[in-house]
Amino acid sequence: MADPGLTGILLVGGASTRFGSPKALAELEGETLAERAWRLLGEACDERVAVGQLEGLPFQTHDDPGAGPVAAIAAGLRAATHELAVVVPVDMPLLTPEALRVLARACRDASVAQGGPLPCGVARRTLPAFETGERRLRTVLDGLDTARIELDERLLSNVNTRSDLDRLAR
Known about the structure:
Order of helices and strands: EEEHEHEHEEHHEH
Strand order of the largest sheet: 4-1-5-7-6-8
Helix content: 25-40%
CATH topology: Spore Coat Polysaccharide Biosynthesis Protein SpsA, Chain A
Largest sheet: 6 strands, mixed
């Protein structure tokens, strides 16, 4: 069941140069990574916002300024109507609704899992920290009151290459 008062921000991603094509459109278990992440956010959050510049997605996206995850998170926070958001990159297909809820519950100004900076929880009131022009997400999060939590390592599996996707499909 979706948590009331929680916004899910999906970072659709960009060119995916290491992957060779847009990762968001790659399939795992019959779903694109974008569809899978969008469904996950629908299960965990009562509001969803996608940020990116990719055509062919089955949902609307807010424009991504193309300046990396910090600027994309800022765009998501500006569109959010709730004070608390969880941010999910499109290339972490094993995340669960419970993992997102743990991030949300731990959030002070922000929250991250080991190895972060994504996925993360972020309070909308921190938007100014994401609008400074800083491009490194770790730097922004290090400047906030950020809770650090432990999640199952497997949930944090990241798809950067086609072989990563093949490994997860097995």
